[in-house]
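Posting here for the record, re: flavin-adenine dinucleotide.
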Amino acid sequence: MQTIDIGIAGCGISGLAAALLLHRQGHSVTLYERFAAPQPLGSGLMIQPTGMAVLDALGLAEEVARRGAPVDGLLGLNTEGEPVLEAAYADLGVPGMVGLGIHRASLFGVLYEAVLASGITVQTGCEVTGLQLRGVQSRLTFAQGEPSPPHDLLVDSLGVRSTLVPPLKAELPFGALWASVDWPEDAGFNQRLLEQRYERANRMVGLLPLGEGKAAFFWSLRGDEYAAWQARGMAAFRAEVLALWPQLAPVTAQLTDPEQLTFARYAHRTTKRATAPGIVHIGDSWHAASPQLGQGANMALLDAVGLARAVERSDTLEAAQQAYLALRKTHVMLYQWLTWGFTPPFQSASVWPAIFRDHFMAPASRIAPGPRLKAYLVAGLAGAGLASLGVKVPEFSRIIGPTSPEGSTRGDGVTGLSASSTSSRASAVLQS
Ligand SMILES: Cc1cc2nc3c(=O)[nH]c(=O)nc-3n(C[C@H](O)[C@H](O)[C@H](O)COP(=O)(O)OP(=O)(O)OC[C@H]3O[C@@H](n4cnc5c(N)ncnc54)[C@H](O)[C@@H]3O)c2cc1C
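Prediction output follows.
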């Protein structure tokens, strides 16, 4: 396609990645963000191999890996100490394959620095309220001031509460309190596992390594219980956490002020039309979900590359919109459906989803090909179509470092997870 003028609403993960990719194709790109200085909200997230494939295509994978922590797998135990959530990337059979725990600010920082370095225009203090379609061009309207100049294409990357799609009908009953804490050295945690503890499905606590000496702590909480949580006070909260996972004492000791914890309310929504005349929706504005499968940021990155490829390969904007949908729809629909199905066994006030999880889902998932399938789903690879997006999962030995025979990719003595065709090793590592 000839060069076009693109306005991108939202300086989040999808918006920044799309801006970089489209700018590199020679298009004129302007980013609009509500904050005076673009900034991420929240604590940590997991970058999956799919997300790393996009970051590698951007030439940013090494820098992101340097700021994050390689994670070999996920392990969640119930109150009986039985593994009810386990997945090991090693079960994919690809040497050195890992996920990456990272602070949201670190991922944002790498993308934002690249945007500034490439000279892309970033308009801050612009609260987007809607759009005006005039002929073949569109403008964004803002809470204050004049609309934007006309753009050939608008990209909505405003996230889950985008003002350019129909509003959320309802949030999910549960969300979670998140805090960034110092990594608890000498407390016996495995630095390469995302670990969680469950009491049925109504209580859950987790610890995700983030690198740079940090971890993300999270505690599942119903939205309608947030006020009561605030009223109970921090001492009661610390006691509640330790009753579920006593090993977290060095972490809870750091949590003294409710202001340290951010309550993120989760939502599930798939916008019916990901494209409309003059606009495409990418990231959470198209598909928001609870972070149970850890895919949102990765899907946002895949949308960005899908849009860039579609524009690159098409002669008209209409054809590019069709191509974007063709590249991304299957993956988006599959993971929206999976996340919808997997959320109740891990976050629900009812006892039945946890009974199903403990007595059927978890045992069945340990039987071949369960471990491999789980690793494939968690890695985000099912239906991702990376080849058609023109990206591939990078060699992790190049991105992170050489793989030791035990599976650790850093050679720093921390043992990772090794592959098994019949059972995930997440639990084996913890229990050894
Ligand atoms: C607690 C939590 C944990 C998560 N964990 C994971 C995980 O482990 N792995 C994973 O892959 N994903 C995870 N996610 C999901 C992931 O964070 C999102 O899917 C991802 O950030 C979506 O990117 P985005 O670019 O669509 O939106 P965002 O990153 O939300 O960016 C939206 C941008 O638009 C701006 N904006 C919003 N409204 C306006 C407006 N009206 N005008 C102007 N600017 C505006 C915002 O300020 C922001 O900069 C998690 C989410 C939460 C809440």
